[in-house]
Amino acid sequence: xxxFLKVWRQAGPDVxxxxxxxxxxxxxxxxxxxxxxxxxxxxxxAKGEEPIxxxxxxxxxxxxxxxxxxxxxxxxxxxxxxVCQLHxxxxxxxxxxxxxxxxxxxxxxxxxxxxxxxxFDRIIQAGGYTSVNTGGAQDAxxxxxxxxxxxxxxxxxxxIGCGACVAACKNASAALFTxxxxxxxxxxxQGQVEAKTRVVAMVDAMDENGFGGCSNEGECEAVCPxxxxxxxxxxxxxxxxxxxxx
Amino acid sequence: MTLDSKVPSGPIQEKWDRHRFDSxxxxxxxxxxxxxxxxxxxxxxASAAASLGELGYNVLSFCIHDSARRAHSIAAQGGINAxxxxxxxxxxxxxxxxxxxxxxxxxxxxxxxxRLAQLSVNIIDQCVAQGVPFAREYGGQLDNxxxxxxxxSRTFYxxxxxxxxxxxxxxxxxxxxxAKGTVQMFAQREMLDVVVVNGKARGIIxxxxxxxxxxxxxxxxxxxxxxxxxxxxYLSTNAVNSNVTAAWRAHKRGAFFANPCYTQIHPTxxxxxxxxxxxxxxxxxSLRNDGRVWVPKNAGDKRHPNDIxxxxxxxxxxxxxxxxxxxxxxxxxSRNAKQVCDDGRGxxxxxxxxxxxxxxxxxxxxxxxxxxxxxxxFEMYQKITDENPYKEPMRMYPAIHYTMGGLWxxxxxxxxxxxxxxxxxxxxxxxxxxxxxxSALMQGLADGYFVIPYTLAHYIASTPVEKxxxxxxxxxxxxxxxxxxxxxxxxxxxxxxxxxxxxxxxRLLWDEVGMSRxxxxxxxxxxxxxxxxxxFWQNVSVPGxxxxxxxxxxxxxxxxxxxxxGELLALDALHRTESCGGHFRExxxxxxxxxxxxxxxxxxxxxxxxxxxxxxPTLHKEPLAFEHVKPSxxxxx
Lengths: 246, 637
Hints:
The complex is a heterodimer.
Chain A: E1 3-9, E2 18-24, H1 33-46, E3 69-70, E4 73-74, E5 96-100, E6 109-111, E7 114-115, H2 118-125, H3 147-157, H4 164-168, H5 175-187, H6 189-192, H7 195-208, H8 219-223, H9 231-245
Parallel strand pairs in A: 1-5
Antiparallel strand pairs in A: 1-2, 3-4, 3-5, 6-7
Chain B: H1 15-22, H2 28-31, E1 35-39, H3 43-55, E2 58-62, E3 80-81, H4 93-103, H5 110-130, E4 155-156, H6 162-180, E5 183-186, E6 189-197, E7 200-208, E8 214-218, E9 221-224, H7 245-252, E10 257-258, E11 263-269, E12 292-296, E13 313-314, H8 316-320, H9 330-342, E14 354-357, H10 359-365, H11 367-385, E15 394-403, E16 406-407, E17 420-422, H12 440-462, H13 473-492, H14 498-512, H15 519-539, H16 551-575, H17 599-602, E18 604-609, E19 618-623
Parallel strand pairs in B: 1-2, 1-9, 2-5, 9-17
Antiparallel strand pairs in B: 3-4, 6-7, 7-8, 10-16, 10-18, 11-15, 12-13, 12-14, 14-15, 18-19
């Protein structure tokens, strides 16, 4: 099949970008969305033109590297699916698809569809860890953790840090990303030791890095490729207040 | 030059303890005066950076990704082994050691493997302390499963995302050090050369992938944790950015490359379905715990699997290997899949697939239990293939997954360039000719958390280094050679894309240096690779320039390195006329078609010394002695 693309091209952060039309021919329904973009790029490179810059690495939905707006929706139309796992069988011959980068002040554009997400690293640096050095840990079974708690912590820990939540949010808030890490660690006894300082530091880092505040719209949850729940933000808010009040 | 493995003397159980005591230490107050470069932020690199930062060294960490958390360790699914014996089922450090040496088909260094088994228990403790949410039992204890043919349950896991959770643990620990200032993070940097000054590794040249500028970094020692070379085959389970470039450039500066022909082909991957496919997706081998592998008894049977009666199905692994059944090691499972497909009994459109069937497991355990064990894998499979594994068998075919070969290192993880250390999949040491499931995560973290902090301290404490800056001639020379290569690629302005050339190389390697290798085929590959390389430098197309983000330029550089490395891969496979582990030479098999080793002639690690592009490398042999695990023909019957 054939699909028509409108792709955001921007040579660098300081120049003006625009949507450019491309046609992807011979698209097979088994192709992934990024393989379709690969094939467009192959044609461009063979002609000596600069290919469309986009990020991707594992191409199995776990590394969080890929991420573009597809028709205005982060990662495209399928729920709980990264764009590398979106397949062209979702489209039909003759469709037009608009592809744009994440747009958020905290994610400055580098080129075309590639943005700088290092602000997420800085949020983690503010406290998204347990302060234990290598060596000297007690036996792993010394602290029992109920299965339900471990499972819940795991659910929050599956965030892949792709930034879709920020891209979807009208405030460009990083609340879902931050809350997932805060929830993961605050549920576990190993993380509770520093729970209060962590949540305050991470929320401060979120503000300092130019992310907006959360106004509970829920777009983030709707587009999260890992299905991270809005409940995490509720936990974040509760932990934050508890930390400030005690 | 003779290879000195520097394995400490004494009983194997005491070697590491003695070695740690004999190793020199660096005074805590002096550590910050020593700079260590770590390239790569996967399990090995991130854990090393975190641990060395905690100790107080001045660590410079580099990765090609936009964040350290993207490294491909994140994609590991199944789990991590540790000899905890929490299940009281007969596990021990000795058994993990034994299984790993045997699983590696007696081509690993015993002392390294024993140390790995010892350290495995500390890894789990460390990760739990970091808050890694491993799976747990209802009583609150950690859960374990049996994995990859092990007869004990020693694998710790976090659903199908163990690599992700372990990597995030290491990454978070590293981020903590970044905040403290002991680790400086340089993301979006690709290492393109090692700088050797007076015979010692003293720095690196990297390309800043965003600005395109070449940058120089100087240090007292360099650690490479840059992963394996599976993407040489184009299609593999590795991330599309994984590459051999850092290791290969180090090889060209004097680091020997060991056993490149030991590549692991994972038996359960989603089959190839078209020319445009960019990568293959692995389905954790834990699926084989409950899934049954079969093909139709009759060649050319194209009926829907649900229409093929039991009597016309061949559960060939259960038939041929009654004691291990579907849980035979990876190399055996892969080879058998190839055999049945070569017999014309393969399934799917391409005929290059076998069924992995959960019908019996669902009948026995019920769908909810099967979903709790494999739900995320089934979902992933359905996303890619549009088929529902609850209703029909999955289709699977082997794919390149892991590379046991890598830069040669001694017991201290130091390569043949003094000061250049190599960790994780990038080195060659612990898995021999075949890696057991759930052992890669173990090795990466053992190297980074628990080995390198000691051995690097010893190197730093015992090796005086000259005070130099990045203005040293060696830096200028290295930068100029990197620049020259980039300029050459940009000026070809040909008509073939790097991907076309990579795909062609990959197909050649898969056909001739893949699951089954022959003298004639390897010679064909060796004749063809230089032609492809020539074609690259005559006809590659790399539009744009080098002064900003140019992903096609990055990719072209990696393909160019694979076009050199591929030759070494084929040459090593040609020289090793025995079969062992993942390396199967058709000329060397038992009467019933199993891999046949030649211990008399090949019980050594083959370490190759670079002599120039297109020039035959020099072979150095590190003899392997097996004092504790007596080599035998592996049998899983």
